[in-house]
Specification:
The complex is a heterodimer of chains A (about 230) and B (about 475). Chain A is an alpha/beta fold and about 230 residues long. Chain A is built from 8 helices and 12 strands. Chain A folds into 2 domains: about 120 residues, Rossmann fold (3-Layer(aba) Sandwich); about 100 residues, Orthogonal Bundle (Arc Repressor Mutant, subunit A), CATH 1.10.10. In chain A, about 40% of the residues lie in helices and about 20% in strands. A 5-stranded parallel β-sheet of chain A has the order 2-1-3-4-5, with helices on both faces. In chain A, strands 6-7-8-9 form a 4-stranded antiparallel β-sheet, with helices on one face. Chain A is elongated and about 60 Å long. With about 475 residues, chain B is α+β, with helices and mostly antiparallel strands. In chain B, a hairpin with a 2-residue loop joins β10 and β11. Chain B starts with a helix and ends in a 5-residue tail after the last strand. At the A-B interface, α1, α4 and α8 of A face α4, α5, α6 and α7 of B.
């Protein structure tokens, strides 16, 4: 997949381009807003990563211009400000996700994956999810693993649903807070970890192959191990 | 609630003063008119009576008793329908001549004047004014002469005046009060608009301006002066914000690079176990530094009110439930019971920031409560105040330190080693004041009680009073 990075800071840009290439993406880089908008409109990209503050044309204007031209390429906005109002502004301008500098590279990768997934056209509304021998019925709100019924609290259910919908991807703690608790904020301690370990106890205990994995320094990943 | 406020306004007090002043003027005017008309008629009557007495005295002196009686009879006969009254009596008040049936049984005022009521032939009560004169009749006892006038017209006139005066005074006072009330209400409304705008500005929306009528009166001039002042303040604030944003950008970007280099090092350099651990530590340290920095910037922004996501009506109890839901797992893990008691409470605010504030308080509570302890969260509202109370059974905060722990970076001596930035409660404080609320710490004996007070929204109220002030078109 092709990714466009619009970032004026050379070091950050180099770090992004290098990291993304190593992760298997094809990367184009634009050093200012005008060039960024030119590339974004003339080429097709899977995801566009835009810095908010750019010379000649700022990031929000690029996204706004693309949306006005009916271009819905997923856009992730980067910013050094990271305030609630900026996030709201960014998302209102048509950005699909928002990330505050500095970020761990794993967070960025996780979000790019999620954006790609979101961009794919949704077919039939899903009524059930499956990862390995773990099954979730969204209608009856029941969970089974290897035909054993698992009893989950409502919040645990939503947590597992989010993980299953993003199975195979790294899901960060912030993504969980936003996706499961629906709050944008900075947790002071890793309150999420306890929820994960409780969930893990319910779905993985007593089974040979664990499904819920911790990705060190990044977050969690739900997937079937070979 | 509304009336006393109206009565306290200076315009209303002025209106009352004017009403009193007008009433005084009306009184003086009426008094003068009374003096010039009724008074004049009374004086005229008295002068006529005096002149008649002098004439009759002369008659007596020249022609004796018989002459006097003749003169009286002649006068009565000359004008039988006139209002003149005469009575001439013997020393025992037996009538000798005159058109009055009997001597009025009254003690005269000094100088012999008196007012009395007599009955006419039809039995009507008719007021009269008269003067008595005593004739020295030599050896015999004194003879009494009474000369009077029918004064019913004067009395009627006086009654008219009295009625006119009371009605006029009533109208003046009522009119003064009504006009005063109307005037003070309209002025009050304009001042209220200024007040509301100022309050909105104090809560951080510097783009608000006071609406002027273009009439160039005092209130308009006050409005434009305040607007100019706001313009100036906004410029200064803008300057501060630019510096802050600049610092944020200038410091965070190099920090991002530092972090990126560390991640790069971790991923690519062939490090041994110790080197890898060192890089991990450096990364954690960098994250901590960035976290503190972000928290500091966030507090500054909340305090300056530039976190501009508009307030929405929300359920405080739901936010509390979510926060407790997030922290219950951690609490249970540490053997602490987290108990929530809530009832529907509506406030206007920023959902994310209120959640952040509440989790900061819960985070402290979980951190400082020993195993087996209890954390109680209560959401309630009475009238205009919504309240979240979080109490724990930890060590609490000594009374003299309670004010200080809210300050940035302030930590209790015994917690020097604990994790955290020392900014948690500062952020709660900033969020509270941003919502026009307050943060209080109390002794829970044992433990700490944190009370977050916010203005409550009345059940299901709309936002009617939003458009009182003009929103200045802001440069995007």
């Amino acid at each position: 997949m092709r990714i466009l990075v619009v970032e004026d800071d050379r070091n950050v840009a180099a770090y992004l381009v290098k990291g993304l290439r190593e992760s298997g993406y094809t990367v184009d880089h634009a050093g200012d807003g005008k060039q960024g908008l030119f590339l974004a409109t003339s080429e097709r990209y899977g995801v566009i990563i835009v810095d908010r503050m750019l010379p000649s044309l700022d990031g929000l204007s690029i996204v706004r211009a693309l949306r006005a031209a009916n271009d819905h390429t997923p856009a992730l906005i980067l910013s050094a400000m990271g305030e609630v109002d900026d996030r709201v502004l960014g998302l209102r301008a048509g950005g699909d996700d928002y990330l505050t500098k500095p970020f761990a590279f794993s967070e960025l990768l996780a979000r790019i994956e999620a954006l790609q997934r979101r961009a794919q056209p949704a077919g039939q509304p899903t009524t059930s999810l499956r990862v390995g021998d773990l099954e979730m019925d969204l209608l009856t709100r029941s969970v089974k693993r290897a035909d054993q019924s698992i009893d989950l609290q409502p919040r645990e259910f939503r947590l597992l649903e989010y993980l299953m919908r993003h199975s195979g991807q790294v899901v960060t703690r912030t993504m969980l807070l936003e996706g499961v608790w629906d709050y944008h904020f900075d947790p002071q301690t890793n309150v999420i970890d306890v929820h994960i370990s409780r969930l893990r106890a319910k779905i993985d205990r007593g089974f040979d192959k664990p499904l819920l994995h911790t990705v060190r320094g990044a977050g969690y990943k739900l997937h079937e191990t070979a | 609630m509304r009336q006393p406020k109206l009565l306290r306004t200076s315009t209303f007090q002025l209106a009352v003063m004017y009403a009193l002043l007008f009433a005084g003027s009306v009184l003086i005017l009426m008094y003068f008119m009374h003096w010039a008309t009724v008074g004049y008629m009374e004086r005229q009557t008295e002068e006529t009576i005096d002149a008649e007495i002098t004439g009759l005295q002369d008659q007596y002196r020249a022609q004796g008793l018989a002459g006097l009686v003749r003169a009286i009879n002649e006068r009565i006969a000359a004008e039988p329908a006139s209002s003149a009254l005469y009575l001439f009596t013997a020393p025992d008040f037996r009538p000798l001549a005159g058109n009055l049936a009997a001597w009025p049984g009254l003690t005269p005022e000094p100088a012999g004047w008196f007012t009395f009521i007599r009955e006419d032939l039809q039995g009507h009560q008719i007021p009269a004014r008269a003067r008595v004169f005593t004739l020295r009749a030599g050896v015999r006892d004194d003879l009494h002469l009474l000369v009077g006038r029918d004064v019913r017209e004067i009395v009627a006139m006086r009654g008219l005046f009295r009625r006119a005066l009371s009605i006029g005074l009533g109208i003046t006072v009522a009119l003064g009060l009504v006009v005063g009330l109307a005037m003070s209400r309209s002025t009050l409304r304009r001042f209220d608009a200024i007040n509301q705008t100022c309050r909105r500005i104090m809560s951080g929306d510097l783009s608000q301006r006071i609406r002027t009528r273009g009439a160039d009166d005092e209130i308009d001039r006050l409005g434009s002066t305040v607007n100019e002042m706001l313009e100036r303040i906004e410029q200064l604030m803008e300057g501060v914000r630019h510096v802050a944003d600049g610092v944020a950008h200038d410091l965070r970007t190099p920090l991002t690079r530092l972090r990126a280099s560390l991640e790069d090092l971790k991923a690519h350099a062939s490090l041994d176990e110790a080197g890898r651990a060192a890089v991990e530590t450096a990364l954690t340290e960098a994250d901590g530094l960035l976290g503190t920095f972000a928290a500091l910037l966030r507090i500054a922004r909340i305090e300056s009110g530039s976190v501009a996501s508009p307030f929405v009506e929300l359920r405080l109890d739901e936010v509390a439930r979510d926060a407790c839901d997030l922290y219950r797992a951690v609490a249970e893990e540490r053997g602490i019971a987290l108990v929530l008691s809530e009832r529907p409470v509506r406030v206007k605010g920023d959902r994310d920031l209120l959640f952040q504030a509440l989790t900061n308080v819960l985070d402290n509570a979980v951190k400082y409560t020993p195993a087996g302890g209890r954390i109680g969260v209560r959401v309630e509202a009475d009238g205009r105040e919504a309240r979240i109370t979080v109490n724990d059974s930890g060590r609490g905060v000594p009374a003299p330190e309670r004010e200080k722990v809210v300050q940035r970076f302030y930590r209790l001596e015994r917690d020097r080693e604990a994790t955290g930035s020392g900014l948690g409660l500062s952020l709660v404080q900033a969020v509270a004041s941003m919502h026009h609320g307050s943060l209080e710490l109390e002794d829970n004996a044992p433990g700490l009680r944190v009370i977050l007070r916010l203005p409550a929204e009345p059940r299901g109220s709309g936002s009617k009073r939003e458009d009182e002030a003009v929103k200045r078109p802001s440069a995007a």
